[in-house]
């Protein structure tokens, strides 16, 4: 099978994950790049091989292109991903699926109508340690989960995106809206849904633009920190914090406190899971390295998406899964804004 791929948006995520992972996939024969900044598309075509399109329609009108990776900034996902599905393409959409439930629903409906595959890049599900943790939680190796604590934070997107300045779109309300919640928080919400096999139903939260300033030295228009309490439908309770101000070191850890002990994931540099049993025994699992902004490894997402098309399987992260996580982030922001507990 020879699959031709179109990538819309040739910034950091296209450069570090989509393009290299498509290039490494044995079933992908060609990549066509498009960016509204043509130099970026040309740059990736030079780096990874492939051609350059002059418009989104160029990609969508090409019947030989089967997959579109939507790596545009957040405010465009509902436009490009919807159009691509309507044009009969399989779509790998970057997270967050959209900035509003209405827009996310447009993509989900377009997928249903088209019958094409849609996956959203909630890549935390794909790491080996998270897959191992899921297996251990499903087998109730530590009994039932009682509470959890998760966090995701780094020094901020002005150190990641293609525009490495404080004028980055990640800091603008009309382009990123959900701030650190849509950037990092939504990953952990998806992970909790996946690991617990449950959905968050109630939230309370505090948020703020605590430290980041824009290009004019003014506090940014979106939140750079969120701290929240979460309760799932089945009654698990826990806390989560999401931050763009963890200066010096990224934190991507999750801890489950269970009936028979504790499971710590990505809590140490040397091993990826540590289990501490009720009687104090410690078991360390060395499985792989965590992918960070500074240390990029294959996410496994692209291979999984290509396989879902090749083998006609349901993608691991559906549009509905991504919509469910978006609803939680929107509820968290509403809870913080109204100082109330919000039920989803
Ligand atoms: N899954 C992950 O772990 C992960 C990590 C980082 C970013 N992302 C997501 O990937 C997406 C892109 O983020 P990024 O970090 O690459 O940002 P970026 O700013 O580095 O790149 C975005 C690119 O999209 C292009 N673009 C924007 N609007 C466009 C349009 N209308 N038409 C054509 N091109 C357009 C820009 O010119 C830019 O080159 C975002 O949705 C972000 O949330 C996901």
TrEMBL record:
SUPFAM superfamilies reported in the protein's UniProt record: Glyceraldehyde-3-phosphate dehydrogenase-like, C-terminal domain, NAD(P)-binding Rossmann-fold domains
Coiled coil: none
Domain Gfo/Idh/MocA-like oxidoreductase N-terminal, first and last residues per copy: 3-122
Domain GFO/IDH/MocA-like oxidoreductase per the UniProt entry, residue ranges: 131-263
One family name in Pfam for this protein: GFO_IDH_MocA
Name used for this protein in its record: Gfo/Idh/MocA family protein
Organism: Paenisporosarcina macmurdoensis
């Amino acid at each position: 099978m020879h699959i031709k791929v179109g990538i819309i948006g040739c910034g950091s995520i296209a450069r570090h994950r989509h393009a290299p992972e498509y290039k490494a996939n044995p079933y992908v024969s060609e990549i066509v790049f498009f960016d509204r900044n043509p130099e970026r598309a040309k740059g990736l075509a030079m780096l990874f091989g492939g051609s350059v399109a002059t418009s989104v329609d160029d990609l969508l009108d090409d019947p030989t292109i089967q997959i579109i990776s939507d790596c545009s900034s957040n405010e465009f996902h509902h436009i490009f991903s919807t159009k691509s599905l309507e044009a009969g393409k399989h779509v790998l959409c970057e997270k967050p699926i959209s900035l509003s439930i209405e827009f996310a629903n447009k993509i989900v409906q377009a997928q249903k109508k088209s019958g094409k595959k849609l996956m959203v890049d909630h890549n935390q599900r794909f790491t080996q340690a998270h897959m191992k943790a899921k297996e251990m939680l499903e087998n109730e190796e530590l009994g039932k989960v009682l509470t959890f604590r998760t966090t995701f934070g780094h020094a901020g997107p002005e150190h990641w995106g293609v525009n490495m300045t404080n004028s980055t779109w990640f800091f603008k309300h009309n382009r990123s809206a959900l701030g650190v919640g849509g950037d990092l928080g939504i990953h952990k919400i998806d992970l909790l849904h996946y690991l617990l096999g449950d959905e968050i139903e109630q939230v309370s939260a505090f948020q703020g633009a605590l430290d980041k300033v824009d290009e004019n030295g003014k506090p940014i228009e979106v939140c750079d920190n969120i701290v929240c309490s979460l309760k799932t439908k089945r009654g698990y309770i826990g806390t989560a914090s999401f931050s763009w101000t963890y200066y010096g070191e990224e934190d991507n850890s999750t801890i489950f406190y269970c009936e028979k002990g504790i499971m710590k994931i990505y809590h140490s540099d040397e091993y990826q899971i540590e289990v501490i049993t009720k009687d104090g025994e410690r078991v360390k699992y060395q499985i792989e390295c965590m992918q960070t902004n500074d240390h990029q490894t294959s996410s496994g997402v692209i291979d999984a998406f290509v396989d879902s098309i090749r083998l006609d399987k349901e993608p691991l992260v559906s549009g509905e899964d991504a919509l469910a996580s978006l609803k939680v982030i929107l509820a968290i922001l509403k809870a913080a804004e109204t100082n109330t507990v919000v039920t989803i």
